[in-house]
Amino acid sequence: MRYSGFKVFLEGLTGNRGWKPAWRDPEPKSDYDVIIIGGGGHGLSTAYYLSKVYGVRNVAVLEKGWLGSGNIGRNTTIIRSNYMLPGNEPFYEFSLKLWEGLEQDFNYNAMISQRSILNLFHSDPQRDAFVRRANAMMLAGADAELADEAQLRRELPFLDFDNARFPIKGGLYQRRGGTVRHDAVAWGYARGADAEGVDIIQNCEVTGFQIENGICKGVQTTKGAINAKKIAVCVAGSSGRVMAMAGMRLPIESHVLQAFVSEGLKPVLPGVITFGAGHFYVSQSDKGGLVFGGDIDGYNSYAQRGNLPVVEDVAEGGMAIMPMIGRARLLRSWGGIMDMSMDGSPFIDKTHIGGLYFNGGWCYGGFKATPASGYCYAHLLAKDEPHPVATEMRLDRFKRGHLIDEKGQGNQPNLH
Amino acid sequence: MIINHPLLGPRDAAEFVYLGDESLIERPDPNAPDAADRFYEYGYLRDNPAGEHKELWYHEQGDRSWLVVTRNTITHQITHVELARDVARAKGRDR
Q1: Best residue in B48, B68, B69, B76 for a mutation probing chain A (most A CBs within 10 Å)
Q2: Containing domain of residue B55, as a range?
Q3: Partner of A345 for a Cys bridge, out of A23, A134, A148, A404, CB 3.0 to 4.6 A?
Q4: pLDDT for res A1
């Protein structure tokens, strides 16, 4: 069933009796060409592109809980491609271009809103670093625009420009950045993959891998054993737990990142604003709530909740740069589990076990990568070679010394 | 979280800085024939368990001692705290 304005109109006239479930709820078959473990944003987009673009039809997505119950529904919905390094920036720009055509491609309203993202800077050296980043972005075909203080004073008069510690001297805009209705991304990809024949199997937890002579032949699940030629793990946040079942240790620590929503306000923020120096970023949802967050809590965690010191730190950062939010009440806060990798960059790669593939290590930047992550993972699964924009996202890059470390922090995951 | 410091008693975790897995105490022998592989594993690979985790915390806003904290990564409950110095000596290191 194709969704359209006309369809909504027609259904409205006929009592809305013609709507069908957006995807089937099948039982697993005994054999598949590809099994994707993880029915979140990345797993579903992998299934979608694998079937639609690469023509692999006999595909199943196994999801432990319900579809989209992980980080695809727990993030702060920002899309952008303002990275710097050659291993990253072309990938994220590819992702942003996929976002721009996504709703038409999968025929689903994901409320993609390119309302811009702004990174504030506070000193001359920081401006120079941002100019360098902007140039790297433009070299990869992305848009970047430097704004000076006078321009920001006109556009965003509510910021505390004369902050004693971090006076605002300007910012780096990416006008094509913005926000997306995150759950709709999972639903749209699920509906699109299902239409291509992908079996999306919910409430089906993988409990083990069937590995014989170094080759993975299938998985054990709570719904029985399932065989497949290729097994694609896509469970960022739980990568450590799942890959431990295959006997692998990863260059990843799991950390908790908190996010917050205020009560609904009238429109006050035109786009996304980030205050990196103060560990704070914010946007405003279409319902009016301020959606904001800051740094990870900083210790290994699989609990989807954080602790008070970071709540205070984020609130202080917000008050420092945007004093007008002081009277807004906090409505909700929650935590999500991040695969924090050793250089802050992700993995889309084969493993040393035949037929077993790995996608993870997205740190706190997985949401914006959803389309490209799925596309590149599908490319790897279909062709057994990396997509041209994801050639550096290898698991063995630490051993070879080819890190993709945007911030130059080294192997300390809680600093990325 | 409250970390029950062996010398100072219960302290707010905000006074501490987190480093990572306790295995970082056991630095590989740089003269071993497979030192490159061992340092790769030491530097980059982690067990990352869901459940009990032994980890290094540094009391930066306090007495600047290193602690080995046994904490559950699912519940955040801390069950045991020792001085890292004692743990290292028990492993045969001289300090």
Answers
A1: B48
A2: 2-27+34-90
A3: A404
A4: 83
